[in-house]
Amino acid sequence: MTEIPRMISLEEAQELVLSHTTRIPAETVPLIEASGRVAAEDITSDMDVSPFAHAAMDGFAVRLADFPSNEADLPVELDVIAEVPAGATYEGSIEAGQCVRIMTGAALPADADAVVKYEIVENVTGDGKTGSRVRFASVPAARANIREAGEEAKEGEVIVRAGEIINPAGIGFLAGCGALEASVYRRPRIAVIPIGSELVEPSEKPGPGHIRNSNGYAMAACAHAAGAACDMLPIVPDDEDALAQAVKEACKTYDFVVTTGGASNGDFDFIKPVVERLGTLYMTTVNMRPGKAQTFGIVDGTPVFGLPGNPAAAYMGFSLIIRPALRAMQGYSALEHPHVQARITRGKKKKDPRRIFERATIARNEDGVLEVTPAKNQSSGLFGVIQRSNCIAVIPEGLDPVNEGDLVECILLDVPEEAIV
Ligand SMILES: Nc1nc2c(c(=O)[nH]1)N[C@H]1C(S)=C(S)[C@@H](COP(=O)(O)OP(=O)(O)OC[C@H]3O[C@@H](n4cnc5c(N)ncnc54)[C@H](O)[C@@H]3O)O[C@H]1N2
Ligand code: MOO
């Protein structure tokens, strides 16, 4: 096997993978499925929204001409000549001294130029409905409590631009504008292939020397969280030909193939020779811990990424290198997890010059200052520590120690709002 030159930096690895992935073509999906995805084309409104001026309050539609310019001439009394509920229209005219009782959402009668809410109108006779006389103690502002026609959108106007992420409110916006489907970038189809003769399906109790395939599940979930559509393919034993066959087959169907395990230099680590045999191998090691053994290459035009077998190492490689590429493939412009800086609560001597990604918890102390506390157990064999963390504290490369109170970069993970401070 040709030796791949050197251990590259995380940034070089990210750039390398990004440079070998392309944005996926668009597809047209029913509106609700477009939520959270990137619009591939400008979307226009098929009409003015709202199509008509309407009341923003339950009250009375009035003509300003009936109100005095001098406050001293108040109050004003008007006759209620009609009622317009939402969904109906009042087509008649409103003459001097008249008003129309109107409900929120009902079309504004042509002659009205303000709506006065019930609460500040007094009944002189009757109950405020048709035939009553009502009293106004103040002069309404012109167009008060009126939602104008076309305030949300004009017919033919671009309401969502290509490249915008359509959010849940945007789905409502589009529905109101008659856009019942949207052209968005397709979700990349990802295959996850767990490699390892020691692996059994999680439905089984592993026998001696065996463990459950937990990486496959975590990587499938990471792919899903990154917006991709993921299939977990059957476990492949540590057998070079079996792995070559599985990878070659997956490259026919999927946009991106991810393996876990067999990425290091052990006697049964085959992803590097397989990628080299089937295509072009671009990367084998990245200056990061956990997760030094990260393989990347192209097989039959498809990106193939060999994650290491250790759970935290696989998670880190996926989150930091694969995830940005999957997001770029879907047209997102922000590719990385958000970062914040926090003061580290424990110093650390460095024996390994790699950049270290510590599973950690970030929180605000009583003074409102962000503090980060790395988990005590940083073994790369553990998923539970990541389940109980809400960020990754980044300890820079080199051998300089980190001192308590130093500001460190923290990467916020795919965690629920409850865990973010
Ligand atoms: N002589 C050296 N040995 C190792 C080195 C090294 O530099 N020199 N690096 C170590 C580090 S660090 C890592 S990370 C691993 C990476 O090795 P592989 O990618 O070849 O991973 P495996 O050997 O296949 O597995 C490592 C570990 O992870 C468990 N594993 C694998 N797949 C799964 C899965 N789907 N679900 C759960 N757990 C899985 C596997 O049983 C091993 O315990 O190499 C070190 N060795
Ligand atoms: O590359 Mo290993 O991940 O340091 O556990």
UniProtKB/TrEMBL annotation:
Catalysed reaction, written as an equation: adenylyl-molybdopterin + molybdate = Mo-molybdopterin + AMP + H(+)
Entry keyword Cell inner membrane: no
SUPFAM superfamilies the UniProt entry points to: MoeA C-terminal domain-like, MoeA N-terminal region -like, Molybdenum cofactor biosynthesis proteins
GO cellular component annotations of the record: cytosol
MF (Gene Ontology): metal ion binding; molybdopterin molybdotransferase activity
Cofactor (UniProt): Mg(2+)
Keyword field: Magnesium, Metal-binding, Molybdenum, Molybdenum cofactor biosynthesis, Transferase
InterPro entries recorded: MoaB/Mog-like_dom_sf, MoaB/Mog_dom, MoeA-like, MoeA_C_domain_IV, MoeA_C_domain_IV_sf, MoeA_linker/N, MoeA_linker/N_sf
UniProt KW Magnesium keyword: yes
Residue stretches making up the MoaB/Mog domain: 191-328
Known role: Catalyzes the insertion of molybdate into adenylated molybdopterin with the concomitant release of AMP.
Name of the protein described by the UniProt record: Molybdopterin molybdenumtransferase
Taxonomic lineage of the native organism: Bacteria, Bacillati, Actinomycetota, Coriobacteriia, Eggerthellales
